[in-house]
Amino acid sequence: MRTVLVTGGAGYVGSHTCKLLAASGYRPVVYDNLSRGQRAAVRWGPLVVGDLTDRARLDEAFAAWQPSAVIHFAALTYVGESVEKPALYHHVNVGGSRTLVEAATAAGVDRLVFSSTAAVYGTPLRTPIAEDHPLRPINPYGETKLRVEELLAAAAPRLRSVALRYFNAAGADPEGEIGEDHEPETHAIPLAIQAVLGERREFRIFGTDYPTPDGTAVRDYVHVMDLAQAHLLALEHLERGGAGTQVNLGTGSGTSVAELLRAVARAAGRPVPSVTAPRRAGDPPVLVADGRRARELLGWQPRFDSLDAIVETAWQWHTGALRRRRAA
Ligand SMILES: NC(=O)c1ccc[n+]([C@@H]2O[C@H](COP(=O)([O-])OP(=O)(O)OC[C@H]3O[C@@H](n4cnc5c(N)ncnc54)[C@H](O)[C@@H]3O)[C@@H](O)[C@H]2O)c1
Ligand SMILES: O=c1ccn([C@@H]2O[C@H](COP(=O)(O)OP(=O)(O)O[C@H]3O[C@H](CO)[C@H](O)[C@H](O)[C@H]3O)[C@@H](O)[C@H]2O)c(=O)[nH]1
Q1: Domain NAD-dependent epimerase/dehydratase, which positions (predicted)?
Q2: Whose C-alpha lies nearest to ligand 2, atom 8?
Q3: Is the fold of 2-170+223-249 the same as that of 188-219+252-287+304-327?
Q4: pLDDT tens track for 273-309
């Protein structure tokens, strides 16, 4: 059985990817400090509790589990927080990734799949955004991800890597085992669901004066299981000897915050209580992926191609989680 070290595997995208890895014959060994992830989401392989910046602990994990590849999710991931604490973001995301790359190469591991982000592009000059678009992040979070892409490119050919630039991860495991469970939660879909369920007073629409058709910001929401699938395809690309590269992961269709609220209302059968608020610092107006490279290089095609289908899986998971909490 092929073992993969999955940093950040207790988190949202990481745990869904572990489920798919296990179903595809891999053994996912999660390496996570549990600062933002959940122990309960580590179900498909062992958990090593460790920090990305801890070289000795990483060395131990490589020696104990002998992985043939790494999938690297672990990071601090909030745009707003990164604007407030840029040094912390550089320390964890860039410093931690450098330590991981050094430990991986010292252990003889030669392939890695990295969670990058659409935030590396900054405010798009043209949309949909292809991978050759200029890289000019407008927030520290995006800057740290770009620095990691650069350090990974410099680590080749000893370590070959695919940087997957996700747009907005959304939805939940359709079998209902895991979902998006951030604390604190800052992401639009879970916040809208919590508002409609009465778990918070209202949803705040950040910005109604963007240069978009309805004035609210536009994003490309891509289902988390489709993202998981892309990680497997990227691993296979590297296993075939494929060269390192960067690949966008999005559906290619844009959804405004106002449209998103209507989709959540359709899933819930009632409107989402909402108020308008100023723009959030660091948010670009529009992020929509040109997904050609993912299709051509990896053969990736998102299976969840409608927003309603994506939101429905999130709705099912959140209402199930609420029932479980109330029953406990
Ligand atoms: N969710 C999205 O929409 C999105 C979009 C683009 C890129 N990404 C990237 O995908 C990856 C996963 O995102 P997510 O939404 O699943 O985030 P998440 O916060 O749910 O998961 C991140 C995991 O990393 C762990 N972690 C954080 N700092 C660590 C450290 N110093 N050492 C060890 N573990 C640490 C956390 O405990 C958590 O389990 C991140 O790298 C993120 O930047 C996410
Ligand atoms: O309470 C809220 C929360 C969000 N939004 C809006 O909803 C959209 C989506 O916001 P999210 O916080 O769900 O996602 P982001 O686009 O900010 O961030 C996501 O995509 C980024 C890429 O730009 C990063 O990769 C980041 O990790 C990932 O979570 C944005 O326009 C945001 O302004 C609101 O209006 N109100």
Answers
A1: 4-250
A2: 188
A3: no
A4: 999 999 998 889 999 999 999 999 999 999 998 999 9
- Check if the interface score ipTM surpasses 0.90: yes
CA distances in angstroms from 136 to 3, 143, 224, 284, 295, listed in the order given: 36, 8, 26, 12, 25
Answer whether 141 contacts ligand 1 (Cβ < 6 A). no
Q: Is the pLDDT of residue 266 over 80?
A: yes
By most ligand atoms within 8 Å of CB, the mutation choice from 206, 275, 287 for ligand 2 is 206
* Residue 98 main-chain phi, psi, to 5 deg: -65, -45
pLDDT (tens digit, 9 = 90+) per residue, 109-131? 999 999 999 999 999 999 999 99
Pick the atom of ligand 1 nearest to 14's CA: 16
188-219+252-287+304-327: CATH topology is: UDP-galactose 4-epimerase; domain 1 (3.90.25)
Measure CA of the first residue to CA of the last residue in the chain; give whole Å: 37
pLDDT-based confidence at 6, cuts 50/70/90?
very high
Percent of all residues in the chain with a pLDDT value above 70, rounded to a whole number: 100
For the domain covering 2-170+223-249, report its CATH number.
Answer: 3.40.50.720
Minimum CA distance residue for ligand 2 atom 4: 188
Catalytic site includes residue 141: yes
| 325 neighbors 179 (Cβ within 8 angstroms) | no
The residue length of the chain stands at 328
